[in-house]
Recover the amino acids of this structure.
């Protein structure tokens, strides 16, 4: 069957959708065309629904779909109920590639301490904010090697083991194999699995010197374990998928493209609520180890943050807060947000250097925090 | 069924009201043999869709509840070891010594326990509900993907079983975890929104014909008002029905603010939410619907 003009229009629509950021793969487009075909005479609403059902893969796609459909086929009265989406985020200027060393590399020449930078041991304790470009590159390599693993928990599942209860199924199977003769008892024991890790990385302006390193830390976590990562600033962005690229630099540029609010303000309380409503409450935070990487500068109402932190604390197995500013001499949690959040935090750590992040990884694994 | 309109009519006969999008989704699912992937808040009718479809098609509903650690033995099939053993013993007692024949007999279909997925492939027509897929592990998802694309199951001892007519498949997810794209790609994606006032009222009237018209209208208006609030868990249609039923059980034919607050426990399940609702002017909501 030759390409009908109508099909060409549908393909064009799919292309426009892809340009708008909906991942309409070839397989989905194929399904779309078949669906329109099956529905017969092409009423506007039929095309709308056929596309929405086949081309969209998540709630986040619906809003974009709505816009592209209206633009492509003309706005002729909304054919379907407009999906209610999250309140429109306050738009901010998107800085596409804003690696943390921007403005630093061509700044004053490296200080004399650079001679020391060759030693990984020294580097481990250096504050991320004070690194020059070469040191930063080395820290990045070290960060990529970091692993993060959640604290172990017992699961209802059982695994074959040497010690434990008798495993009737395997024992009977063994009996069967020997034609019913008595055989060794097989045993099983409860399996252990690492808990889920949820990382919330603050990418607001006050965290700019640390954002790159912390996101690379999140990259190592997402690559290695059951971890979920979000960025918080003026809005909440789930970046787990972007971080799942194997290559750290590719992952970082994917995150840079996906996060619209680099270096804005922080609305910790409100975003924490959004996280809890959309993800945490439904199960992501339940029994998980939740790690907040933020300096606790809150532009909104600290009372709200305190309340959300209490809710988070009730849901999660453990709430860990890593604050890069904590390492500064004379630091006291005076930022209103930090002070409000602390009562609901199980472990309050530093997060300014490689050594601090290694310690954080140990605490996430279940080690006692010192 | 020839078109979305017919699907809608058949579903409405069972008491499940659908909008345009869902009617088209169901029609395409039936015609293209694609699973429907349902996402939305709890209590908006995702699971109920599967039972309504089953009733409309006159097909049995086969349900697979997913949970963490679910594996093939729980979802697909398992060999009935005790029965196999008995068979072996009986054969031995009868003096059968042909080992090869005995082995062939042991792995017969009658010793196979069909779990939901296998049962759905063997029963046609049937509606398969894979509930809360987001609770299962990634590995199980990959396994499900294989099954849903081919509608075949390979059992090493028996061979490949193929569904003569693929079952109608409904997957639901509460979005506790992002389901893998490869699985979603095979499906028709439908997002369930909370219904508007008129539709919700129609659903209440349909599902609870015994409840007085006035009560149904008031309860629906109250729930719609509650949903507009910033709640930890906004009530779904299921809660609206619960509330109307609870008030009806109390012998009420209409509700005032006081009675509404007293029975709030049927709709709001968090202390914070209940407190928030008590702070609302429920009487005003009712008055707005009063005339």
């Amino acid at each position: 069957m030759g390409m009908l003009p109508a099909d060409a229009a549908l393909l064009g629509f799919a292309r426009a959708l892809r340009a708008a950021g909906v991942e309409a793969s070839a397989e989905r487009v194929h399904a779309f065309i078949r669906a329109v075909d099956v529905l017969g005479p092409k009423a506007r609403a039929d095309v709308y629904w056929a596309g929405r059902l086949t081309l969209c893969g998540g709630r986040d796609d619906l809003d974009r779909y709505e816009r592209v459909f209206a633009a492509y086929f003309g706005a002729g009265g909304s054919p379907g109920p407009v999906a209610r989406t999250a309140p429109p985020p306050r738009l901010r200027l998107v800085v596409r590639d804003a690696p943390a060393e921007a403005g630093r590399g061509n700044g004053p020449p490296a200080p004399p301490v650079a001679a020391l930078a060759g030693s990984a041991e020294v580097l481990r304790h250096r504050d991320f904010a004070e690194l020059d470009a070469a040191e930063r590159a080395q820290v990045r390599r070290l960060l990529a090697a970091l692993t993060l693993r959640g604290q172990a928990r017992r699961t209802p599942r059982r695994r074959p083991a040497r010690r434990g209860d008798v495993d009737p199924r395997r024992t009977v199977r063994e009996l069967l194999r020997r034609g019913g003769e008595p055989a060794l008892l097989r045993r099983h024991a409860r399996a252990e699995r690492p808990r889920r890790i949820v990382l919330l990385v603050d990418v607001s302006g006050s965290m700019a010197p640390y954002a790159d390193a912390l996101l690379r830390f999140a990259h190592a976590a997402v690559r290695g374990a059951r971890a979920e990562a979000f960025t918080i600033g003026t809005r909440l962005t789930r970046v787990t998928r972007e971080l799942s690229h194997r290559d750290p630099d590719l992952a970082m540029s994917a995150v840079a493209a996906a996060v619209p609010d680099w270096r804005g303000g922080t609305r910790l309380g409100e975003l924490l609520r959004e996280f809890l409503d959309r993800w945490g409450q439904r199960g992501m935070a339940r029994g998980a180890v939740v790690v907040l990487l933020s300096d606790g500068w809150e532009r909104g109402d600290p009372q709200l943050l305190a309340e959300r932190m209490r809710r988070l604390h009730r849901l999660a197995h453990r709430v860990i807060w890593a604050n890069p500013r904590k390492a500064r001499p004379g630091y006291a949690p005076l930022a209103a947000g930090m002070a409000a959040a602390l009562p609901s935090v199980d472990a309050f750590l530093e997060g300014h250097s490689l050594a601090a992040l290694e310690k954080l990884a140990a605490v996430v694994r279940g080690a006692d925090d010192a | 069924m020839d078109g979305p309109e017919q699907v809608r009519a058949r579903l409405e006969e069972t008491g499940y009201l659908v909008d345009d999008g869902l009617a088209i989704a169901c029609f395409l699912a039936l015609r293209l043999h694609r699973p429907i992937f349902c996402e939305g808040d709890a209590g908006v009718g995702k699971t109920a869709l599967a039972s309504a479809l089953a009733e409309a098609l006159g097909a049995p509903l086969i349900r697979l509840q997913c949970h963490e650690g679910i594996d093939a033995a729980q979802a697909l099939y398992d060999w009935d070891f005790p029965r196999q053993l008995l068979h072996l013993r009986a054969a031995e007692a009868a003096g059968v010594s042909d080992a090869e024949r005995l082995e062939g007999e042991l792995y017969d279909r009658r010793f196979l326990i069909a779990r939901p997925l296998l049962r759905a492939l063997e029963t046609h027509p049937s509606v398969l509900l894979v509930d809360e897929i987001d609770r299962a592990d990634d590995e199980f998802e990959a396994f499900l993907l294989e099954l849903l694309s081919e509608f075949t199951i390979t059992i090493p001892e028996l061979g490949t079983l193929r569904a003569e007519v693929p079952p109608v498949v409904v997957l639901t997810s509460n979005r506790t975890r992002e389901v893998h794209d490869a699985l979603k790609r095979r499906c028709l994606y439908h997002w369930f929104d909370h219904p508007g006032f008129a539709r919700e009222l129609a659903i209440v009237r349909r599902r609870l014909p015994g409840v007085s018209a006035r009560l149904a209208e008031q309860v629906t208006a109250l729930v719609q008002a509650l949903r507009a609030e910033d709640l930890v868990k906004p009530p779904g249609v299921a809660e609206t029905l619960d509330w109307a039923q609870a008030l009806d059980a109390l012998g009420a034919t209409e509700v005032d603010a006081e009675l509404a607050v007293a029975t709030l426990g049927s709709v709001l399940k968090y202390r914070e939410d209940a407190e928030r609702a008590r702070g609302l002017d429920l009487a005003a909501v009712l008055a707005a619907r009063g005339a």
